[in-house]
Amino acid sequence: RSIAIFASGSGSNAEKIAEYFAGRTDIEIALILSNNPKAGVIERARRFHIPVLLFDRTGFYQTDQVTSLLQKQGIDLIVLAGFMWLLPASLVQAFPNRIVNIHPALLPKFGGKGMYGHFVHEAVVAAGEAESGITIHFVNEQYDEGQVIFQANCPVEPTDSPDEVARKVQVLEHRHYPRVVDEVLQRLG
Ligand code: GRF
């Protein structure tokens, strides 16, 4: 089975997934893709000898080069790990129930447009939530509204800063995402 990981940022989730599958011969991380030539994920990919494909808006939205490359490579599952652009409908349609994403909050709360990255944790703190967490879900054309696969939560103390919430949530991401990706792959049959 082959995985392609999309990331725009530091790529700590991508790295945890690469570490998790490093010893496995049944699963290969064939490619890491990014829209950001400065993304930390590029250096992390290099350490794991995983090829990186960079693309810009034109390449991603005006052509189908990314989708056709993923199809040519026989990618079985697309894993979004901090990818900041919406996927073109053509890509989502080419991989039905074959794209997963991790959202750093308990969807359906704190989801949707603009609710990503550190801003989510600021919104959770501002709302006085007693807990936050992660949501791993399939990606459909409505993005954060795809079927939920897994959720885990963490307490939010009244004194917690957004940074402290982000840290607790990241612990959950790193603890659960690799295993949940593995479970989804096993269910692909
Ligand atoms: C994580 O918070 C993830 O939930 C969100 O983007 C961030 C990615 O972090 N989708 P990293 O680049 O994997 O460190």
TrEMBL record:
It catalyses: N(1)-(5-phospho-beta-D-ribosyl)glycinamide + (6R)-10-formyltetrahydrofolate = N(2)-formyl-N(1)-(5-phospho-beta-D-ribosyl)glycinamide + (6S)-5,6,7,8-tetrahydrofolate + H(+). The keyword Cytoplasm does not apply. The keyword Signal does not apply. (6R)-10-formyltetrahydrofolate binds at residue 101. InterPro entries: Formyl_transf_N (IPR002376), Formyl_transf_N_sf (IPR036477), GART (IPR004607), GART_AS (IPR001555). N(1)-(5-phospho-beta-D-ribosyl)glycinamide binds at residues 11-13. Its EC number is 2.1.2.2. Pathway: Purine metabolism; IMP biosynthesis via de novo pathway; N(2)-formyl-N(1)-(5-phospho-D-ribosyl)glycinamide from N(1)-(5-phospho-D-ribosyl)glycinamide (10-formyl THF route): step 1/1. Pfam families: Formyl_trans_N. The active site is at residue 103. Residues 3-181 form the Formyl transferase N-terminal domain. The record marks 144 as: Raises pKa of active site His. Keywords: Purine biosynthesis, Transferase. Belongs to the GART family. Catalyzes the transfer of a formyl group from 10-formyltetrahydrofolate to 5-phospho-ribosyl-glycinamide (GAR), producing 5-phospho-ribosyl-N-formylglycinamide (FGAR) and tetrahydrofolate. This is Phosphoribosylglycinamide formyltransferase. It comes from Nibrella viscosa. The lineage of its organism: Bacteria, Pseudomonadati, Bacteroidota, Cytophagia, Cytophagales.
